[in-house]
Structures are given as C-alpha cells and as structure tokens.
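Re: Re: ligand-bound prediction request (bumping)

Still looking for help on this. To restate: I need the protein modeled with KG4 bound, output as structure tokens. Inputs repeated here so nobody has to scroll up.
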Amino acid sequence: MEPIILGIESSCDDTSAAVIRGRVMASNVIASQQVHKDFGGVVPELASRAHELNIVPVVSEALSKAGVKASELSAIAFTRGPGLLGSLLVGTSFAKAFSLSLDVPLVEVNHLQGHVLASFIREEGKEVHEPSFPYLCLLVSGGNSQIVRVNGPLSFEILGQTIDDAVGEAFDKCSKMMGLGYPGGPVIDALAAKGDPSRFTFAKPHIPGLDYSFSGVKTSLLYFVRDALKEDPDFMEHNKEDICASFQKTLIDILMDKLIKAAKQTGIREIAIGGGVSANSGLRARIEAEGRKRGWHTYLPPLRFTTDNAAMIAVAGYFHFLAGSRAPLDTAPLARC
Ligand code: KG4
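Reply:
Sorry for the wait, this slipped through. Here it is.
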C-alpha cells in the first residue's frame, strides 16, 4: 500500500499542511499571512505568532480535505530549515508532538530540496510530467538563487549560486525602492507585462563560473531612478511599466545566461525551475522559448507549487521516508542548512 504522508511547512510567512498518498496530492492547505504587508517585508516575530495561530486549523483542514484520519498517516514530514527560526520552531514542534502522539515516524525535509522536487507532486487526473535524472533545477526565491544538479531524489549538487542578494530579494528591494509595494516580484511581473523591455538598460554582473550576483543590478536601478527623478519628479509614474519590463528582462537575462552555460557544460537537457520567482511569467516564457530552441525538456511547476507549500515538503518527505531516513525527537530547526 502507498504511504500516506502529512507535510508541514512553516519556514517563512506561509503556514501550510498537505497530505499525499504515494506522490498524489490529496490536499494542500496554505494560510498566507497578510500581517506583513504594512511593513514592506516579513516581520519574524509576527510570522511566528501567526504560525502559532494557524498550525492546528491548517493541519485539521488538510486532513479533512484529504479524507484521511490522523491514525491513517504513515509519516509526518516537516521543514527543518532553512528559514526563520521562530517560524520553523512552530512547525517542527507541532510535527514532533503529533508524531509522538500518533506513534508514526518523523521525517525532516530541507526546504530548498522541497522546491527542487516540486515537479514530482502528482495530481489526481492530471498527466504526469516529471524530469528524469539527472536534471538541472534553477532554484530562485526570496532567499536563494542556485543552479542545482539533481542526480536523484536525494542527491543534489549546487553548481552555482548567488554571491550576494537572491533574485527575489532584487525584485522585492527594487519594488520597495520604486514605491511599488511588497512582495515586489508579482507587482513588477504584472507591470512588466505592459511595458517595453528594451527601453532601458541596467548593468549586468561579470561573475566567473556559474555563480550569480544581483546586488549590482539593484544599485544600477537605484542610481537610474534617483537621477531620472531629479530631472522629472513624475518620471516613475509615467514610465513604471517600461522600467519594470527592462529591469525584469535584465534579471531574466542574468539567470538564463548561467543556466544555458550549465546546460552546455553538463550536457543535461532536462531543465526544471522552482521557488517563488519561478512564478514569474517572463522567466517561464523565456525558459520555454530557450527549451524549444535548444532541445531541452522543461518542467515548470504549476503556479500554486512555486511559492511555499507543504505538498512539496510531503513529496520530498516521501522520498526520504522510502529511503528509511527518520528524524529523532530531539531534532532542532535550523535557520541555515
Ligand atoms: O519561495 P518563496 O515563496 O519564499 C522564499 O523565499 O522561500 O519566494 C518568495 C519570493 C519573493 O521574493 C517574491 O517577490 C518572489 O518570490 N515572487 C516573484 C513572483 N511571485 C513571487 N518574483 C517574480 N515574479 C513573480 N511573479
């Protein structure tokens, strides 16, 4: 019989619980926290408090939507890290207590590996479209920008990563700088869709190998906006679509240059993406276009699995569970791992 796994995710500002049977998703409940909007970023203390309020109702809803009794669970998988320590503590403590009370195994999951394995979430009635090993995953979120070579469901090799800001951070900080709101990625994405990506140019980094850097392009935008506003105080208002389109294109160019290089160097043509920024419509279109041109097989997770969700934690947990890995009850969350 296929194992039934409860996944729990609480690494940042989404409290999520999901149930999978085998790898087929039976439920995936996400409580997103609105409390941070007024602060222009996630406030760690408020995030922990909201997780504390959300965790029990979210898990109950995930079980009832899946039509699964707690006693039927084969294992509980939880995000151990990386993330905000106070947030992780809520999910970790709940998972430990629940596994102890039910006497079922506890399985720890690395949040980033969850994003990288998001393509393996299966959905009832939907065609299976999963990468074969080895594949490359462009992992792009608010805290990470990496190219990962995935040799197997439990075997990961980081080929390149950012040496400063993550690409999601560049979206968020630049949106804030332009007064466009938080989180910046979706706002810039929507404005960019209406703008001309070739109107403005921003500095691109020259970093050797497969590593990334996004702090320079952020500074380039900062100086550009500052200088333009000196000449015309309404410049932002009249040009925000073109600025966003040009800025987004620059970030996508930077991401794609290294991804193409990695694909050439490794000879791998199975290409997946994951993480919050993989929801970006420009990036998704570009990966598909490059895929057609270069004979890649591309795997873009549905939008609901790009941002933080427990279904990806449950699926990663499934692979760990089958491999026999178990987390002891003294497992502590890790802000960095
Ligand atoms: O993976 P995620 O939900 O959280 C972690 O960082 O772990 O990613 C959040 C990031 C934020 O920086 C947000 O601005 C970005 O994903 N994001 C996007 C889009 N949707 C979310 N960035 C660009 N375009 C989007 N459509």
